[in-house]
């Protein structure tokens, strides 16, 4: 006979189901448009059960944002660990994943996140951490001979973030295929920071992707 889940296991599974459902709904409709009751109805659970697990929408939203960051970092780490990777491999994978994460998300979702001070603080901390990691990454790329030593990577990192924000805020991914945006905007931006060695590897990989 099969052993039934314990109450603790069930509650943990339900917590994850709520989190996943809420994340999908928030990104599709925006935060304000989604009520806690809506999520409970989708999952066919009582409002009481819902509020026992997540006390309010802000807590649920915070967990959804944290989960997004964890999933992205986990995907990147899995990619890095899956073989011998150099900086061109990693930066291409990073931006491909970023473009995929924007696809299908209602822009109002990102706007509304900034109405929550604790979530805004978390996002700013993550961005600061990302910029610090990016500078170390670019330094590694310079040392390996793939990135130009004469570029200001602090400026480039900020411009990179601004480019992604522009794509998101203006919904370019709805007007154009994400792959076209990648090839015509991000690819040219990245290619410009490369040395001849970097350009050669960059072009080789893009040719492989087109096959």
From TrEMBL:
PROSITE patterns: HTH_TETR_2. It comes from the Bacteria. The keyword DNA-binding applies. Residues 35-54 bind DNA. Keywords: DNA-binding. GO terms for molecular function: DNA binding. This is Transcriptional regulator, TetR family. It comes from Hallella bergensis DSM 17361.
């Amino acid at each position: 006979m099969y052993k039934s889940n314990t109450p603790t296991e069930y509650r943990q599974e339900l917590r994850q189901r709520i989190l996943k459902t809420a994340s999908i709904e928030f990104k599709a409709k925006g935060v304000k448009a989604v009520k806690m009751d809506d999520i409970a109805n989708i999952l066919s659970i009582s409002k009481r059960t819902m509020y026992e697990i997540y006390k309010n929408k802000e807590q649920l939203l915070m967990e959804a944002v944290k989960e997004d960051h964890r999933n992205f970092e986990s995907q990147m780490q899995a990619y890095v660990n899956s073989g011998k990777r150099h900086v061109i491999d990693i930066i291409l994978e990073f931006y491909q994943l970023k473009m995929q994460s924007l696809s299908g998300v209602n822009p109002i979702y990102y706007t509304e996140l900034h109405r929550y001070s604790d979530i805004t603080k978390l996002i700013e901390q993550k961005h600061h951490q990302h910029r610090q990691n990016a500078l170390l990454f670019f330094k590694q790329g310079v040392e390996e001979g793939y990135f130009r030593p004469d570029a200001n990577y602090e400026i480039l990192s900020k411009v990179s973030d601004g480019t992604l924000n522009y794509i998101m805020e203006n919904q370019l991914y709805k007007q154009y295929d994400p792959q076209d945006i990648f090839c015509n905007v991000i690819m040219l931006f990245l290619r410009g920071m490369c040395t001849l060695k970097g350009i050669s590897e960059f072009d080789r990989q893009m040719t492989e992707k087109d096959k």
